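S.,

As promised, the heme C run. Input:
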Amino acid sequence: MIWLIAIFIPLYWWHEPTRQEAAIARIKKEAMTKGAEIFLSHCLACHGKTGDNIPGKHLRRTLMEEALLTKVISRGRSGTAMPAFGNEEGGALKKFEIADVVAFIRNWDQSLFDAAAARLPPKTAPSPGPGPTTPAAASKATATPATGGDAQKGETVFSDMGCAGCHGAAGQGDSAPSLKGKSAATIKKVVRSGQNAMPSFDAASLSDVDLENIIAFLVQSK
Ligand code: HEC
Ligand code: HEC
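Predicted complex:
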């Protein structure tokens, strides 16, 4: 019996550090997973899937230290489109959520991001096919009318996708130009293809339905 304990105790102690390391690794992975989800819902619109959308600001390979990242994300960068996310600044994120998104950025792992995207699919499915929506195609595509998006939903999407952060809450213009009087065709083209500092939004990040809703919102808020 004694010999069993004599073997077991050292074995136990020998395992202990690795168990602690495993626990720390698990906690870190959980923070990064949560961070990837936060990035997807709050940062994707401007910074893009790989964190490279904004010229010269490559979040994936950032050399910024944890403290500086936390500060920029919490307080935003005044005079730029980078909003303040800290709760105490009126933003949407609590301290620990900012810590999670910082953990994700500093250990950028595209697979975590893709997994988060798979768990949190876009709210509405992308349209069934490419090309302009003719009235005939619209009547075939059930429940997705070509015109008459929902302005109220559009307002929410406009804010959630970060459009409002650059163009102002009602598209009246802020760090980016006013969108008043823009045609639906212009809005669609620029949103899908991007233009200079204007990031592009593909159907995976902004569905056709949500784009119609945004257009309805912008037309209505003229
Ligand atoms: C409305 C658009 C917008 C959203 C949403 C946004 N950012 Fe930014 N972010 C910017 C812009 C524009 C800059 C560049 C500011 C500048 O010129 O210094 C920036 C800069 C940054 C920087 C500094 C990068 C550097 O190298 O200087 C970090 C870090 C950052 N953003 C993180 C985030 C995180 C994390 C989120 C989500 C929680 C987020 N951003 C959401 C627009 C946005
Ligand atoms: C990171 C800031 C930023 C975000 C986010 C952003 N835009 Fe823009 N947008 C710009 C800038 C800057 C321009 C001007 C581009 C240029 O100089 O050609 C622009 C241009 C446009 C234009 C073309 C205006 C014109 O006169 O040609 C439209 C339409 C537009 N944005 C719609 C949107 C919509 C809709 C969204 C959200 C889905 C959005 N933008 C998100 C910065 C942004």
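The chain has two domains: 15-119, 135-220. DSSP finds ten helices and no strands in the chain.

- D.
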